[in-house]
């Protein structure tokens, strides 16, 4: 820990953006599915990755950080999270993830709810999470709204890409929101798409502002971006039959860029998903028949999808332990490879499922999620294997900027490492 | 209370009057029976008894393994022998009795089976449909009369996952936290059965689930009735304990002296059990300040809080918990999902241990129960990075012996001590590594999960013939 602080102090002593940094000697995990590289080098400059791997030259004048005995990896990308929208999930006043009573649906833009100062942001950053795919929750319609991609940097500029995708609930949850059945949800989806197209054909004749309007103008505009393939449509479904119905949508809406979310029964239709070239964002370890729509749930789902050629990313879905549990999820998918009959992932695939996987699912793999040259420099030095439970980050850069290694949780920890009070009340103890 | 006392006073006056009137010839026919009280009749303390029977197992020697015995000891290259459902010996090198199954565990670890002190499996089974929502009798703030065991669906697919993925061999099923006093818990062996009673841990004491904080005040406040505040929570609790003290006094007297039996009150039976130390209080409570109030409430009415569950802020009052001998059952790193969990930190359990307070891990989750070993691994990591050194072997106490003690079953399970139930997990690596899984799980010496044998994987009735049935889960 002390060594980490010293390291950080050295880093903060220099202007972060301008400095070229070379991290040498560590085990490098690119995050693109490749195996970790021992004794690799990562070079960052101007907020971007210059190069990463074995035999990478250290540019002259670079600040050199010795990472021997440590791991250097891409930062974790948390998919399907309410991070930055919420202070405490159950505290409604603090929760901007969903809008139960809004007349707007697809139009809702969660980037305007992003709070870079939310304490969870710094807490999760300390565990190696550097980006998040922030997803609205559907509460008044099958359309939840437009999600955003953010960074977890200690600065006010958090939004990497606003309105990066649209999120829709089908399956059981969608049926409930649409009035009581799955067919009703599909009817609603198709009608909303039809109305968006009406709006395009004749904006002046489009209602969209009366109380009776099923689709507002703003919603129609947001849906046109989906229909035109400008943003992906993330569709939450679990059951194999629901997945097939979703995969049939592009027949009628050919430009749709589908991403399947949830998909606990995906392994039953893995070949169809692969053939449709649709990426999946799945819960890693969902193995219980949580509802009737996921009776076939198994921890092997992700591995079997991957084996069939489906690109798979893991979802944090607002885990109670925080977004950082993603790396525990990924590690478990490596673990099950040793269980006869189970299908897991190799280490590189597992790490990619929480780094480049989610980035690529939403079409941002060229920008974030790995240490490939040109990507934003989100880099974490760990004191061990990043998927292992005993490891923690000792230094983190986001967009090439070295990040503070403290959070509200470390403040609480330090105040209460000795629970008894001293000469003054605990409220006076600060470090 | 006052009217009861008054009635009792009148009654004793009448009794005193009887001998005097015995001289009266008109009432002298049955003087003896009039003065002699009916002998006391104790009500059944265990009317739904366990019918659990251990399944047969072979005498088994695990050798060349790393042993965490659950009492804080580690043996490298060690051995464990069990037979007749019991642990026979733990040591460096043991001889195999004739006919014993011998397993070479090179690179593997052996631990006691995990005991989860906080589960709702069976009461909130999957699929989580409304028809299965049997965990909260949320119809009144005090429902000490309900027993979680009467809701348990023994076919919950979650039991099998907890066994196969989690190495959980014993678990306490609690009613939910909607109510201040939510009812009785039940302790189960994690062995599928046709009936709840056939899963019931033989002889385990009952627990009373209590809850403080946001849940009861939200549930009843939204119905516009007491409690709607934290002070309302304490008020209703105190009023109830006051009644329970009186109920106990009446029944103690009756059971000692006989006479007319007081009216039964099923809820009060439970509280009487708590006041007489037979039933253990398992109290859902997050905030440090509220736990302190509950500890004083326990003093006020003469009961003991066995454990606070979900004790997210326990690390702030480790000294108070230690002084009162009250345990904290906690998550590893859950935080920020409600106001009272806002101050959660990953070092909670470690700070408690460091301060000498009783602490353990718990799940309260059908998924988390499958990875409690990993939850402890996260705590160990947080601890070590904060400068608190706790050994792996010592940390295993948080997974088995600690919860077994807080359930009152530590004489039977929770560690690999000769004579205890052979509840054993063989892990395919260090169980604090994310890459490790249970390879074999024995309950009472019977092999009930084997990763290498598809026939040793449970498939509950519900899953049979459904999509994915019989698959590795």
What does this structure look like?
- The complex is a heterodimer of chains A (431) and B (473).
- In chain A, the strands form two sheets. In chain A, strands 1, 2, 3, 4, 5, 14, 15 and 16 form an eight-stranded mixed β-sheet that branches.
- Chain A starts with a helix and ends in a 15-residue tail after the last helix.
- The longest helix of chain A is centred in the middle third of the chain and has 20 residues.
- In chain A, helix 3 packs across helix 4 and helix 4 packs across helix 5.
- Chain A is built from twelve helices and 16 strands.
- The N terminus of chain A is likely disordered.
- Chain A is globular.
- In chain A, 59% of the residues are buried.
- Chain A is of the alpha/beta class.
- With 473 residues, chain B is α/β, with parallel strands linked by helices.
- Helices cover 28% and strands 19% of the residues of chain B.
- Chain B contains twelve helices and 17 strands.
- In chain B, strands 1, 2, 3, 4, 5, 15, 16 and 17 form an eight-stranded mixed β-sheet that branches.
- Chain B is globular, with a radius of gyration of 25 Å.
- The ordered H/E elements of chain A are HEEEEEEHEEEHHHEHEHEHEHHHEEEH
Uncertain runs of chain B are: 1-28
What is the mean pLDDT of chain B? 93
Distance between the termini of chain A: 15 Å
Q: Overall 3D geometry of chain B?
A: globular
**Radius of gyration of chain A, CA atoms, in whole angstroms:** 22 Å
What is the makeup of the main sheet of chain B? Answer: 8 strands, mixed
Q: Estimate the strand proportion of chain A.
A: 15-25%
Overall, the morphology of chain A is globular
Mean pLDDT level of chain A: 95
Supply the helix-strand structural class of chain B: alpha/beta
How would a crystallographer describe the biggest sheet of chain A? 8 strands, mixed
State Rg of chain B.
25 Å
Estimated share of beta-strand residues of chain B: 15-25%
Number of helices of chain B: 12
Q: Give helix % range of chain B.
A: 25-40%
Q: What is the subunit organization of this protein? A: heterodimer
Helices and strands of chain B, in order, run as: HHEEEEEEHEEEEHHHEHEHEHEHHHEEE
First-residue to last-residue Cα separation of chain B? 56 Å
Give the total of beta strands of chain B: 17
Largest interface: A-B, 57 and 65 residues
